[in-house]
């Protein structure tokens, strides 16, 4: 079964109204990301409908995205005021057992605009990690040019049930180091492995199969020549990953074997029987 460890159904529906029909036809289990209550409720509704119709599982997740302080122009003066509402929603959803993971959270220091909100991102991450630990939830992390901040927090992260790195941004050495430090890390790969991103391709080829996940980040990481990504892209992502692993002579490199292992990883991370 195909699995999507990170997608945005609310945003995808705007660009591709047939997305949910496609997901069900393909039997894709997915973990959906949301950053507002309206987005979450949309995903939760899809999840309920899928369960009622015995369709492939959808798992709603929630977090305050690390880009939000910059995008919404939060100031340091009203940092606490700005964060209170969304973080209260996060705690409420976790307490009520309505989310399957805390995510996507993390750090984004990609440019000067985002770097200006680094202190706010630090505060947000601490709250998200606390919620994940209190409610025994996995975390889905967005990390851009900020792996040093992840390594500075491995003491807390290794207490987390699972840590999913959305669109794994690091090196093979960094991934191996996280595992050595005791972080129950899983590395998710999407269109980057099809777009000649050399380090992502290398990591996908050499990481242990039991640490791999696949994702679309739909609609935000389209394959070359397309305007948006969709669930059907998972077939090509799996095939590409298998080809990379075959070339590297890595264990578990056949498409069917790899798909089965990744499905098992997804079920393990999100505790699906």
Describe this structure in words.
The protein has 273 residues and is of the alpha/beta class. The protein has a single domain, classed as TIM Barrel (Alpha-Beta Barrel). It has 13 helices and eight strands. Strands 4-5-6-7-8 form a five-stranded parallel β-sheet. It has a three-stranded parallel β-sheet with strand order 1-2-3. Helix 5 runs parallel beside helix 7 and helix 11 (198-206) packs across helix 12. It is globular, with a radius of gyration of 18 Å. It starts with a strand and ends with a helix. The mean pLDDT is 95.
The helix-and-strand class reads: alpha/beta
Number of helices: 13
Radius of gyration: 18 Å
Low-pLDDT segments? none
The separation of the N and C termini measures 13 Å
User: Remind me, CATH topology?
Assistant: TIM Barrel
CATH homologous superfamily placement: Metal-dependent hydrolases
Biggest sheet strand order reads 4-5-6-7-8
Query: Approximately what portion of the residues adopt beta-strand conformation?
Result: 5-15%
The count of strands amounts to 8
**What is the count of structural domains?**
1
Q: Give the biggest sheet.
A: 5 strands, parallel
Instruction: Report the top-level CATH class.
Output: Alpha Beta
Report the principal-axis shape.
globular
